[in-house]
Amino acid sequence: MFDRLEIKLVPPGPRFAAQLRFWVNGKDVVQEALGEGGRGPYTADALPADRPSPLRATGEARRLELGEPDCTGGCCGFLTVNVQRLGEIVQWSDWEVPRAAHTPMPHPPPELHFDASQYDAEVARAEADRVWQMHS
After folding, report:
1. What is the pLDDT along the chain (136 residues), one digit of tens a residue?
2. Do 132 and 108 touch, CB atoms closer than 8 A?
3. What is the C-alpha separation between 111 and 105, in angstroms, rounded?
4. How many CA atoms lie within 13 A of 20 on its CB side?
5. I need a surface site. Which of 58, 101, 131, 133 has the fewest CB within 10 A?
6. What is the 3-state secondary structure (H, E, C) of 15-64?
7. Rg (CA), the chain
């Protein structure tokens, strides 16, 4: 059985621009890994208007930044994962989870496997939904 991805927008707040959250199988991956104060990537970086999104999976594995702790990624590191297309499967693997001094030892999420057509459709949907630009 495949994992299911949903990409959700977090509107801008007083301190941060609009950002994305990644829900897999009904759970917020960023919150699960980083806790309540964790942030997803800025929408403008993850869904650029002038080029394909880095979320798109290709046959070449690449590291994707999915979030950072409330103390910032420059302090404690970023939540990252390798994303790669393997035929009709998109795989997220080799997670790196930041370690903040005030939190217990982090446990990386499991390896995830998405049906490539569902994954592609969800990334395309997020790329096409530019409503966040009105809030930036």
Report:
1. 899 999 999 888 787 788 999 999 999 998 888 887 788 998 888 998 888 899 999 999 999 999 887 766 556 677 899 999 999 999 999 998 887 645 555 677 899 999 999 999 999 999 887 665 554 4
2. no
3. 19
4. 27
5. 101
6. CCCCEEEEEECCEEHHHHHHCCCCECCEHHHHCCCCCCCCCCCCCCCEEE
7. 14
Tokens of 1: 């059985």
The letter for the amino acid at 107 is H
Q: How far apart are the first and last CA of the chain?
A: 38
* CB-based contact 43:20 (threshold 8 Å): yes
Provide the token pair at 50.
């002038």
In degrees rounded to 5, what are phi and psi of residue 75?
A: -85, -55
Phi then psi dihedrals of residue 123, to 5 deg: -65, -45
Per the structure block, which two tokens stand in for 72? 């910032």
